[in-house]
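Collaboration report, partner site 2.

Our partner group contributed sequences for two proteins of shared interest, and the home lab folded both. The records are reproduced in the order in which they were received, starting with the first partner submission.
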Amino acid sequence: QSLGGLATFRAFLKSEYSEENIEFWVSCEEYKKTKSPAKLSPKARKIYDEFISVQATKEVNLDSCTREKTSHNMLEPTLSCFDEAQRKIFTLMEKDSYRRFLKSPYYLDLISPPGAGCGPENCKRNHTHSLDCNSNIISQCA
């Protein structure tokens, strides 16, 4: 995973006031690594309270059906209880934020070698990167 790429994408989302999306996605990835069944419920509750509940401090933009299903999953949390919500937020980032990110100075500075200047060959690159939910986010950056 490119930590530089992830940090840069996070900074871009912060500039757009939507960093809660990547924070939710990363929290879900970490949650899925939980080994102890006893820790599932408290970790799930923390993610739910922070990103999904009506009073969430960093509420992500989910449709009511997904929000309701995720709320229901909180009754008996499993490693996959956030999968649908995570998928929806991922798609939102992929189709919206990530496309703008690829055209932003954040990304262009990340991929341009230091001192490369801005000649036509550097500014007119054709980048067709995409997010891959099952692998590392922004793995091709940096």
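Second partner submission, folded after the first:
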Amino acid sequence: MKMPAEVIREGELEKRSDSLFQLWKKKLVVLTKDSLSLFPDGHKRAKGKELGFGSILKVDCVERTGKYIYFTIVTKDRKEIDFRCPDQSCWNASITMALIDFQNKRAIQDFKSRQELEQAAGTQERRLARAP
């Protein structure tokens, strides 16, 4: 059973719909160290959409108007998801910092894995070199 992730931040964001009219719809958003979950009706009871940080490339296109901050989440398959939040809420910064933290931890894990593989290969080479 998967343990629920620690919540970094929870609140409301507006997401631009993919429909023809591209209306802004309010979503309950839960930010954890691994993902951003969006719930359509403002309650966690409904099935939410989870954007795992492993599938997110970057947070882009930050624009500030008098009332809102607009930003785009770009996924690794180049899909763009547009959001806006009240100017002082700084959701874009919270998401960006969580994404950077996730990417840094993944890079460290990848580096350590490569080191372990190289060390194991080196140990095997030394054993083979000593063999009669």
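Feedback sent to the partner group on the second submission included the following. The chain has one domain: 7-129. The CA atoms of residues 19 and 28 lie 20 Å apart.
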